[in-house]
Specification:
By secondary structure, the chain is α+β, with helices and mostly antiparallel strands.
């Protein structure tokens, strides 16, 4: 899957669907393919193909790959085509008619039907030989000197190199010590010197990149004379001019923009006497700048010459000196120093001839592969092929050296797999890495679920032992490494490939260009070392081992052995395990590589096969070893013979080595290993005769007890996933257990942060994973959050997985924790039982099944949660609803005051509900003790977390509990059991009242709450608290008292005032004063020394003059007054007025407050106005409110939260760091908490305000889309955190804030409010 990196754009990608291949009616999985590549030109006439291709069949391959079948060009390269529409003429038999593609197709069908082999062939339509006749008629199909003028310099270099070869042949350079016999590094050095000093300088290469100085200066001079002198003086600063390359690549054809020259050089001068002298001096100044251009052109040409000389040196070295090269003897016309054209130089200037001078570009190293190879419509022919054969198997070898560029080809062309080469590995460790990378999923991989996010994956490979591009293995490694290399390659869970000749141990590279000999044919008869009849049988080379490995590869591919584990046992030894989770069986192969030629004393021989074994670390294997599938090694014959290179056939070096192999034997009969039981579950494999080049493969069956345990776990979880209510695990019915759980009990099972757990038991706490750290929750969600990320990336190396493999501690923690509490004890026993079986599972598989168990249980518990809530919805709605479960639970140190359960007014009988779930303001900072329950936070969050989710009874209890704590006409800010409550905030009471109103609206017959009895802890302000007070009032009387006290005026000093209550507050801050302004109807209060609202605003204390008097206001009068005064006092118009305060700096907004101590704060732009828009929309004028909302959107709206202050305000600081004490007054110790950081809950009210007024503004649908887009970002934020919730706030522009609560009640609640309003928006 390819992703666009830009996060602001939608992610796009491609889904590559693998073809389904059937050969002779049988399905051939891609992982079961083993393919051999052959050169058709080495097969001879078509009539002889079967006997030569039978070698591939007898080697166990089930696929054949043919290089191009077309007529080849003059170079005889298998990839250079003379005629794309005609088969190779070498396929014709003597005296018979020409073979056509129909004949070849018929042969392929026969091979497919009779042998069950898939056939593929190379498609290289653009690989055209230079001698192809149709290129003369269509030169436009090439890159030539006419349509690609940039090749003109290259053509001249090519000509110079050709002349060098001619001069060397003629003896011109003999006095330099260079003859036509190039045999040494000294000869190459002489060639380099001649090129650099004599040959290449003659062509003046720099002129193709240079300018004509005289011509440009003359034109500049004419232009200067024709225009007036500008009023700009010369600054004597030399300008670096921009050169425009001549597209025709003529000598001295580059130009410079004349306008640029005039602007830079046509200037006034103070050092001249007249206009002519001014122009003359400027022309000289320009000439110096142009000379600099030509100097840069010469430098560029020198760089090109350096590259040419180095390339000639390297090419000549490979072809004439290198041991791996052809070692050409002499420089001749047919074999020049480097291949070159023979045309004359002047042909370049004749278009009719120059169009036939083409670049034989082939493959240009380090060039951009997207040029030429990925032009528009590159996929045209592949698309045409798919119309004929939809299940097209496409293999590519791209040479891009970039997986990202590989993916561009794969995605756009629909490539099935890419060729990867094992022979490129520099050591056995890299071989093991390649097997792991392309070899399937790791053993114990997590089960993928339907909700697993799509992720970019590695392009499937065809992992090849060797290709024709590689050197012969015997040239870069030792012969002893042939068998380990092919064995390791065959163990990858992907297509497996090799080339003809490798299995026969052909000790030279089979060149796709120069090789013209024929492959040998198959025989069942014994072949003598002296035979030269071009035959090969199963005892030659490593053919018998390759057959066994191909058979094993097919068995694993067909049998779903799709999980792999690679163990680097030592520097040279690799163990690969392939596991089938369906039958719990493994194939374990151990290969001992031998990259370098071993010492003579370490070479195994037929008379001493154990020689060279030395010490090897034993291998531990879990399970029962059923059989040795094969064991093999290469031995030196008693009478080894030198390799004889046949002139007619491609033969292997089998006369000096023999293969020692055994198949399908009991491990007791092995000659190479021994096995001892280490413990009841493990076997120790000792390598007793395992010299370099050895291979052994074992079939291992999981212990029956382990297999039975897996079956039990799978069957149990399958029934649970089917929602089978009768599912039993050792007589424990899971559904019967969980159906009794309340949401409070599920809070304990799934969540509870560390401090909540320790609040119950100081010895308890979250689980700590070594090398990872503490989980965020003690409950199952703590583990699930980590497992979700592990599962997404299949990260089996994660410390959690390691901890599970090393011991049972995690399992015991879960079951024991649940067994401690009586209400969850049965679930603890269920976990104990299923974990009993999990402990019997092999350690490598435990993380997988642990995840499977927890994921299943978690899903069922979440369903139980949602079933106990009244509203269902999208995945995001459900995720946010879980915040209600996360944050509401029992807490020993922060209980709610007792609430009346039953009350009889006649006989004064009262029964109390003693344990009421409380809401944590946020986790983990506000989870226990006095900091858990905040009046403001609780009631801002109540609508979303409790009313929308249908937790009506609990919501009523919390409303009534806080009402029972009313004192001074205020609801507590910090509840602290009601006993130590603080009444130091003005807004908590109003949020409480708003929730009562919402309760009456949301809940069926909700207005009955007004009659609900409230036990008053404080009948009088100065009373001591009564925990179970017998003073009972209906809720509506408590409401009336709160409003009446506000209207009358509130003034008191907090009890216990002083540093023991609040060490940071000044003495005056403990004085609380609140009232209602009779002129405006607005509530006022606070002082610069205390904090009364959520934003900790410092208010101005104003005395109304009648605080001690009873008000005669009615609610209707109060409402009318607010309707009359709100816009008048709070709206700041877009147009300035003479009466405006000079402190106004932002218009088209509503003031944040009125009459503050520091007057400028009245005019600060904050998101609080959105709250008023939602709870009292009738106060706002429609034309004003939408303008204000647009300003809020454009200025304050962040990626997740709302900026709490205008970024242009001098107090703004968007980064909150609570722990940092500094000299900065605005931010030290987090003083900027509400001065810029972006709060999530404010986003909820902003989006709700947008929805509230969108219809009036005539843009409801557009607003809905905007809201949905913002909600999508919030959903991502919920998913990415281990806490699975929305944070309290973020820093500037959505940056993570480490000092924020990662889960905050009002953040989730207000987002749920938005989702509810969005659903009902009209």
């Amino acid at each position: 899957m390819q992703n666009i990196a830009n996060n602001n754009e939608k992610q796009i990608g491609f889904l590559i669907v693998d073809p389904t291949i059937y050969i002779a009616g049988k399905k051939l999985p891609l992982e079961a393919i083993s393919m051999q590549t052959v050169l058709p030109k080495c097969l001879g006439p078509l009539s002889e193909w079967q006997q030569r291709l039978q070698v591939a069949k007898e080697c166990g391959y089930n696929a054949l790959h043919f290089t191009p079948l077309q007529q080849l060009g003059a170079s005889r390269s298998s990839y250079s085509l003379y005629d794309q529409l005609t088969p190779n003429s070498s396929f014709n038999s003597d005296g018979n008619t020409d073979i056509n593609f129909d004949d070849i197709h018929a042969f392929f069908k026969k091979i497919e039907t009779e042998w069950g082999m898939m056939i593929i062939t190379d498609v290289v339509w653009n690989h055209t030989s230079y001698d192809t006749p149709w290129l003369k008629d269509h030169p436009e199909a090439t890159y030539n000197l006419v349509n690609s003028p940039h090749l003109r310099p290259a053509f001249l270099i090519d000509r110079a190199l050709y002349r060098l070869s001619i001069d060397v042949i003629s003896g011109k350079w003999q006095f330099w010590g260079l003859t036509d016999s190039v045999k040494s590094e000294r000869d190459l050095d002489i060639i380099a010197t001649i090129l650099r000093q004599c040959v290449l300088p003659e062509i003046n290469l720099f002129e193709f990149f240079a300018v004509d100085i005289d011509k440009i200066v003359l034109e500049f001079q004419k232009e200067c004379k024709s225009i007036a002198c500008p009023d700009i003086y010369c600054d004597n600063v030399m300008k670096e001019l921009k050169v425009v390359q001549d597209p025709e690549y003529k000598r001295l054809g580059c130009i410079v923009d004349m306008q640029e020259l005039l602007e830079s050089f046509n200037v006034k001068r103070i050092d001249v006497r007249d206009e002519d002298e001014r122009i003359s001096c400027n022309c000289e100044w320009l000439k110096i700048a142009l000379q600099d251009i030509n100097k840069r052109a010469k430098d560029k040409a020198e760089g090109i010459i350096d590259n040419v000389v180095q390339s000639v040196y390297n090419t000549a070295r490979y072809e004439r000196i290198d041991d791996n090269g052809p070692k050409h003897a002499s420089v001749t016309d047919e074999c020049p120093i480097v291949p070159s054209l023979k045309e004359e130089d002047d042909i370049m200037n004749n278009p009719e001839l120059a169009c036939h001078i083409s670049a034989l570009n082939g493959w240009v190293f380090n060039d951009d592969p997207l040029k030429n190879f990925a032009e528009p419509d590159s996929e045209y022919l592949l698309d045409a092929a798919r119309k004929i054969r939809p299940q097209l198997f496409i293999v590519a070898e791209l040479f891009t050296n970039s997986e990202d560029i590989d993916n561009l080809f794969v995605n756009n062309l629909g490539i099935t797999c890419l060729i990867r080469e094992m022979l490129n590995a520099p050591n056995s460790h890299e071989e093991g890495r390649l097997v792991y990378r392309y070899g399937g999923e790791p053993i114990g991989s997590f089960c993928k679920s339907i909700d697993t996010q799509l992720r970019r994956c590695t392009t499937p490979a065809i992992l090849t032992v060797v290709t024709h591009d590689n050197q012969c293995l015997l040239k870069v490694r030792s012969i002893w490494d042939c068998l380990p290399t092919v064995a390791l390659t065959s163990m990858a869970n992907c297509c497996f490939g090799s080339t003809r000749g490798f299995d026969e141990i052909v000790p030279i590279q089979i060149s796709v260009v120069s090789e013209e000999r024929l492959y040998t044919s198959w025989t069942k008869n014994e072949i003598q070392p002296t035979d030269s009849c071009g035959l090969v049988g199963k005892v030659q080379g490593i053919i018998e081992a390759v057959y066994a490995l191909n058979k094993l590869h097919a068995t694993m591919g067909n049998g779903h052995f799709n999980e792999v584990y690679v163990d680097q046992m030592d520097q040279d030894t690799v163990a690969v395990t392939r596991f089938c989770p369906e039958i719990n069986q493994s194939i374990v192969l151990v290969a001992r590589s031998c990259f370098n030629e071993p010492k003579i004393s370490d070479i195994p021989t037929s008379y001493n096969p154990a020689q060279g074994t030395g010490f090897m670390k034993p291998l531990l294997v879990e399970g029962n070893v059923i059989e040795v599938i094969l064991e093999a090694r290469l031995l030196v014959c008693q009478k080894p013979m030198e390799y004889v290179n046949s002139q007619e056939f491609i033969t292997g070096w089998w006369q000096s080595h023999s293969l020692d192999i055994r198949e399908n034997i009991k491990y007791q009969n092995s000659q190479m290993i021994s096995i001892q039981k280490q413990d009841p579950t493990k076997n120790e494999i000792t390598f007793v005769s395992f010299p370099p080049g050895s291979v052994v493969a074992l079939r291992v069956q999981m212990k029956s007890s382990s297999s039975s345990a897996i079956t039990t776990i799978n069957e149990c979880l399958t029934e649970l996933n089917k929602r089978n209510q009768d599912a039993q695990l050792d007589n424990l019915n899971f559904f019967s257990i969980i159906e009794k759980f309340s949401l409070t009990e599920i809070n304990y099972i799934l969540y509870r942060c560390n401090s909540e757990e320790k609040d119950d038991d100081s010895r308890a706490g979250v689980y700590v994973i070594p090398e990872f750290g503490e989980l965020v929750y003690c409950g199952l969600q703590g583990f699930i959050s980590v497992l979700d990320k592990i599962r997404q990336n299949n990260d089996l190396g994660h410390p959690l997985c390691k901890n599970l493999r090393e011991g049972p501690w995690m399992m015991d923690f879960i079951s024991n924790r649940l067994k401690v509490k009586q209400s969850t004890c049965n679930l603890g026993h269920w976990f104990h039982t299923i974990f009993k079986y999990l402990k019997m599972v092999p350690v490598a598989l435990r993380p997988k099944f642990f995840d499977y168990i927890l994921k299943t249980v978690n899903e069922l518990l979440l369903e139980a949660c949602w079933s106990k809530m009244s509203r269902n919805g999208t995945h995001f709605v459900q995720a946010l609803a879980l915040s209600s479960v996360q944050l509401i639970g029992n807490c020993k140190s922060a209980p709610l005051p007792s609430v009346i359960e039953n009350y009889s007014s006649s006989d004064k009988q009262i029964s109390f509900r003693s344990q009421i779930s409380s809401m944590a303001a946020g986790l983990p900072h506000f989870s226990t003790g006095s900091m858990r329950c905040w009046g403001r936070d609780t009631f801002i969050a109540m609508r979303g977390l409790m009313l929308i989710t249908g937790r009506f009874e609990e919501a009523r209890n919390i409303i009534v509990a806080f009402g029972g704590c009313l004192r001074h006409g205020l609801i507590p800010n910090l509840l602290d059991k009601g006993i130590n409550a603080r009444y130091n905030c003005r807004d908590a009471t109003w949020w409480w009242l708003q929730c009562i109103q919402d309760y009456c609206t949301f809940v069926p017959n909700g207005d009955t709450i007004l009659q609900h009895p409230v036990a008053r802890m404080y009948l009088n302000d100065d009373d001591e608290p009564k925990l179970k007070s017998e003073t009972v009032q209906p809720l509506y009387e408590v409401i009336q008292e709160a409003l009446q006290r506000h209207m009358d005026g509130i003034a008191f000093r907090e009890r216990g005032a002083g540093p023991m209550l609040d060490r940071d507050m000044k003495d005056k801050g403990f004085d609380v004063s609140i009232g209602v302004n009779r002129t405006t109807g607005f509530v006022y209060g606070g002082s610069e020394y205390n904090c009364g609202t959520w934003m900790d605003k410092m208010g101005e204390s104003v005395t109304a003059g009648n605080c001690a008097k009873r008000s005669t206001f009615t609610f209707e009068e109060w409402n009318s007054l607010l309707m009359e005064t709100f816009e008048k006092y709070f709206w700041i118009d877009e147009e300035s007025k003479s009466t405006d305060s000079p402190l106004v700096h932002r218009r088209g907004i509503y003031k944040d407050c009125l009459g503050a101590t520091h007057q400028y704060t009245d005019f600060q732009f904050r998101p609080n106005q959105c709250v008023a828009m939602v709870v009292a929309p009738e106060l706002f004028k429609s034309d004003h409110v939408w303008k204000a909302l647009q300003n809020v959107k454009n200025i304050l709206c962040g990626p997740l939260g709302m900026k709490t202050l205008d970024p242009k305000d001098w107090n703004y600081n968007g980064r909150y760091v609570n722990w940092l004490e500094s000299q900065d007054y605005k931010s030290s110790k987090g003083f900027n908490y509400h001065q810029g950081p972006e709060w999530i809950w404010c986003t909820g009210y902003f989006l709700r305000a947008m929805l509230t007024f969108a219809s009036t503004a005539g843009c409801l649908e557009e607003t809905k889309e905007f809201v949905k887009s913002h909600l999508a970002d919030l959903e991502k934020a919920t998913e990415k955190t281990y806490w699975k919730g929305l944070p309290e706030l973020t820093n500037k522009d959505g940056e993570d804030c480490t000092d924020s609560c990662p889960v905050q009640a009002w953040s989730a609640a207000c987002t749920l409010d938005v989702l509810y309003d969005l659903k009902h928006a009209q």
